[in-house]
Amino acid sequence: MNPSHIQHSHQQQALAPGNLAKDPICGMMVDKSTALSQERGGRRYYFCSDTCLRTFVSPERELKALKTRVTIALTGVLALALLRAGAFIALAAGATLLTWAPIPALPWFTWGIWLFLLVTPVQFIGGWSFYKGAWNAIRTRNINMDFLIALGTSVAYFYSVAVLFFPDVLPVKVAERDVYFEVSAVIIAFVLLGRYMEEIIKKKSSAAVRRLLDLKPAIAHVVRDGQEVDLPAESVMAGELLIVKPGEKIPTDGQISEGRTTVDESMLTGESMPVDKHPGSAVIGGTLNGSGVFSFKASRIGADTALAQIIRMVEEAQASTAQIQRLADQVTGYFVPAVVAVALLSLVGWSLAGSFAQGLLAFIAVLIISCPCALGVATPAALMVGVGKGADNGILIRGGEVLERAEKLGTVVFDKTGTITRGEPNVTDLIALGTALENEVLMLAAAVESGSEHPLGAAIVRAAAHRGIRLPKAGAIQGIAGHGIQGNVDGQEIRLGNRRLFARQGIATDIAEPHLIRLEADGKTCMLVGAGERLLGVIAVADTIKPEAAEAIAALQASGIEVVLLSGDNRRTAEAVARQVGIERVIAEVLPDDKAAVIRQLQGDGQVVAMVGDGVNDAPALATADIGIAIGSGSDVAKETGGIILLKNDVRDVVTAIRLSRATMVKIKQNLFWAFIYNSIGIPIAAFGLLNPIIAAAAMALSSLSVIANSALLKRARIGLSQNAGT
Known about the structure:
This protein is about 50% helix and about 20% strand. By secondary structure, the chain is α+β, with helices and mostly antiparallel strands.
């Protein structure tokens, strides 16, 4: 750990909201000006205690140290139980403990001395982390739960020491049997055991970031000075040429220069099928190469890679705060001083009533039962699991506020091109007229378009290649603006275009008109194909709809969400697409710059609005919406402006993301409810002397553990549609 990253400051500042930060480990609110801090990935995190900081920096080492302290504490408590059992056995036999003990001749080894010897290691070795945390809390003026535990157990321990060794200094007459060593030891053991179990559950629940970190390869094959050399992946520089062999992880982001392969991107995007890669294809660092060998040029390295950005987004989202947590944070800020005051009042009240011992127990019980652990971890625990579950399925959620808005979502606006549709035109219909054959019509059209860069022409050439049609050579190619294209194939004049192109040549198109009307009503672009004076057929091209779009729309509407289609295309085409996927409300012919204004108008109707787009042209609308949901590939993460990013190009993940957001918010509300109830009921019971401190410690540990366990159940939630229904 770099000491320069840890800051200690003793300047007193007003605890304005901007000065407060949440401890990402325990959830306590701390003052930034005095708290311990650590920087990671360009972001600074603040901690209430050295224990939380060490857990953040070295979780495995701290978990091992915590296990050691738990072992010491439980061993001490077990020894106390055996000693107590031995005493009962001896008494039942009519003897005393001293006559039963192996060294009865030593007058110092009384019952209290045995307790003192067994509890002292538990108090100062097992409970050392509480003392260290309490000292940091006092020094940085951020009173935390370590302070409450250290204060409560220390009062029990040192009071017992005074009873045992200095009874004359106490204000009341006491006997050796009035010691509370066991109370102190059992409290420490229960709290440590609860924390250890919490960390075990957290470790399992937060595995998403660790899995992403494990994707980073250690070695890269770099071409330098014409030679292939193996170097640490961290030393790769942008622009360098790298070689990836079969079965290896890709070291960094880049673009393939030579070779073909398939790449497994499932760990990063959740996409189960390997993706074909060829020269010019983008590759993402951390993904797994298949059986091919290829070379690629590094484009992004280090913190700029898609994997590094995804890890940073997940970490920041897991450490974020939902608005619902702010009430709990405000309460926690005043909670600890109030608890200490209530504990002191209990001690004074019972002492005035003539029962100092009962007052002492009430004092300890109030301090222990009131530890705001459950309140502190209520939101972070659920966020950690929810965000991690999303990352496992290729869904990146930027923070708690996004989750909270999703719960109140009323309208989802979909961009058409690239979101509902595939984003590129494809041949959808091929109609031969008269005696012509379909393949003949497609062959002649593709021959004329074979050298064209127009998207419609490219779609026709792809369709011919898909059918395995060999294209003849075309010559005298001539594009006619606003009409189409024509050329010469095997001595025939071939024309491909709209009605106006054929009208110029006096060629009748009446026979094709019924087909044109029908296809154009579906929003398709139709092209007539002719040879000489003959009309051969009709080719319809459209931006085809993603097969899963209708299922996603139906699922959203079934949950009571209104769905709107927003498009810059003409109304007829937009409405045709909307009919096919089941969307009733269409807003068409909207310029890209005006889409944000449409979102604001929908928000003006009092709706919480989500915008779903490809994250590039739709960036202003995504940023304007209450929730921006960007659909894009893993390599485009840096460009996305959405609050939710879907790494897979699957519209069904919109439904999954919303369901996950709502399920996470349900867990947060459940956690906060039980945490508030626990403290609200527990403190008065303890103050009135009706709660044994040992039971209070068990209840406190159990409350935090229940919050963590309840959050962990989120991993089993069924939130997906058909492709990930088991997630």
